[in-house]
Amino acid sequence: MIVAKKIGIILTFMLLSQMETPAPVVLFFGDSLTAGYGLSPEEAFPALIEKNLVKAGRKVKVVNAGLSGETSAGGLARIDWILRQRVDVFVLELGANDGLRGLPIAQTRANLQGIIDKVKQKYPGVKIVMAGMQVPPNMGAAYAQEFQTIYPDLAKKNNATLIPFLLENVAGNEKLNQADGIHPNAEGHKRVAEHVGKFIEKVI
Fold it and tell me: How many of the other CB atoms lie within 10 Å of CB of 169?
């Protein structure tokens, strides 16, 4: 009887050890940049990051929770619904629309912190990634400079990984953007995927 129990314990342990660990869920929570405005979902950078990581042999599941026109306040209002699913890595890409509308920076900062607080409360072990954004100089130099500090400040406060600027080497390049000069085209999203993917790979 004792031998049988031991064999049963060993077999159970072997079965458990052979069970596959669930792929980490990387959730991109953002606006039209994340959603892939003007493109198919497969062309947006979150989907491309998943494709690249899987091709490189990394197990990962990417969820694109981008919503065109989203502000930090809108994100705070809908985050509880998004968090009904498991999240291991939370990539926060919001605030650009706040900046384009010239909304108070203190308000944007508070909303983004509120989103982070809700994510951490629901999933204490989650890894946070802050995608830094910038606003055009026509909003005023002082406003643009202060806006840019939101992301490194929040990253430091929340022990999060910082992507200094989501659109690094893409913003302002006509060949990589759609006619509006704001949203990356398919080639631009490929560049964003390469840039952001390096940070995601390290986090997972």
Answer: 13
Instruction: Please state, in angstroms and rounded to a whole number, the distance separating the CA atoms of residues 183 and 70.
Output: 14
Angle at 71 between CA 68 and CA 74, to 5 degrees: 95
Residues acting as catalytic residues: 32, 180, 183
Beta-ladder partners of 51 = none
Backbone angles phi, psi at 65, to 5 degrees: -110, 40
Cα–Cα distance between 84 and 114 in angstroms, integer?
17
Structural domains of the chain in order of their starting residue, each with its CATH number: 25-203 (3.40.50.1110)
pLDDT tens-digit map of 7-42: 444 444 444 444 567 899 999 999 999 999 999 999
In single-letter form, the type of residue at position 135 comes to V
Tell me which H or E stretch contains 91.
strand 89-93
pTM of the predicted structure, to 2 decimals: 0.89
DSSP annotation of 69 reads T
